[in-house]
Amino acid sequence: MEAEHADKKRMTRAGQPEDVRDLLDNAPRANIAFNNSGAIEAVPVDFCLHEEQYWVGMPRDGVGARPEAGDRVRLLIDDGCYHFDLRGMWVRGKLSQAEIPPWDGSPNLTWFRVEPAKAVVWDYGAMREARGG
Amino acid sequence: MNLDASPVREFLASSMIARIATLSPKGQPNITPLWFVRDQERLYMTTRDGSPVVRNIAEQPEVVLLFDNERDAMRHQVLRLRGRAVFRMSRGILWRTVLRQLPKYRVSPAALRNLLSHAGKAITMARYYGERGAQGGVIEVTPESAEFLPRYRTDS
Questions:
Q1: Of A32, A108, A122, B56, which is most buried with the most CB atoms under 10 A?
Q2: CB contacts < 8 Å between A and B, how many?
Q3: Does the model's ipTM exceed the 0.90 cut?
Q4: In a domain, B155, yes or no
Q5: Do residues B65 and B18 lie in contact, with contact meaning Cβ atoms separated by under 8 Å?
Q6: CB contact at 8 A, A33 and B140
Q7: Mind listing the pLDDT tens digit for each residue in A17-60?
Q8: What does DSSP assign to residue B121?
Q9: Cα–Cα distance between B90 and A15 in angstroms, integer?
Q10: Do B29 and A35 touch (CB under 8 A)?
Q11: Quick one: which H or E segment has residue B77?
């Protein structure tokens, strides 16, 4: 049954991180969501793709609750507002503390690496037919 | 600060995407970008029944929403709203929301330029949504608080 489904062609908006490399290299905005002691929380972050690793930076104060090293987060990087411009990536992963900021990351922020467990990419402008869809 | 405060109203009026953060029943965080419209004191977002956001708010209705704004004067700020969400499937509320989305996302000059520049993909788009087939509905969010946060960008 699964093999049959995998062979079937469907329309898809899905892609791979390399398909949105330009977006990851120059992300207009990034945000993370995390579990803050049983309550949902979300904060805007700065984002860098450095040495093929995902880095997020956030101010040391002024944004309320912040995630800590070891926390599970969902990172969202997205762009566009009209249908065929909509694209982005989310990454589910765990934060690890960075000793030093990535090379182009602001030293005024606290930086973490996101250790990815899963990443999903979409691009409505690149919709196409693909096996398994 | 509430939704009626002038800075919040002004920010939302020229914001295009709501990023809605939710918690799964197992405690996994989720954040999804969606189109939104405002009607009186509530925000409305169309989505499909059974999406992760819909499943999450059925169990945990508390949500956090983040909004950006591309106007120069506001682009270094993020609006964060906290509130409660419910998924509604009545045809009335769905069509009201779709109609309110039209001038913002479908028939504004910028939206029409976007559609016309991808006119060749109209069939692809119709097939994509046809294949998904799930019933559409509306996430209704009642905001309870609002605050502004700084938006940091490496490129700024």
A1: A32
A2: 134
A3: yes
A4: no
A5: yes
A6: no
A7: 999 999 999 998 999 999 999 999 999 999 999 888 999 999 88
A8: G
A9: 33
A10: yes
A11: strand B77-88
Query: Residues A18, A74: contact at Cβ < 8 Å?
Result: no
Calpha distance A46→A26 (Å, rounded): 11
Question: Is residue B1 included in any domain, yes or no?
Answer: no
Residue type, A20: V
* Partners of residue B124 in chain A, C-beta under 8 Å: 11, 127-129
Torsion sign over Cα B63, B64, B67, B73: positive
Contact between A45 and A20 (Cβ < 8 Å): no
Q: Which two tokens stand for residue B98?
A: 């779709």
Q: What is the CATH number of the domain that holds B34?
A: 2.30.110.10
Range of the domain at B108: 6-150
A60 residue type, one letter: R
- pTM for this one? 0.91
β-bridge pairing A87-97 and A39-50? unpaired
The residue count for chain A: 133
Record the tokens describing residue B156, joined without a space. 């700024």
How many domains does chain B contain in total?
Answer: 1
**Helix (H) or strand (E) run with residue B116 in it:** helix B109-117
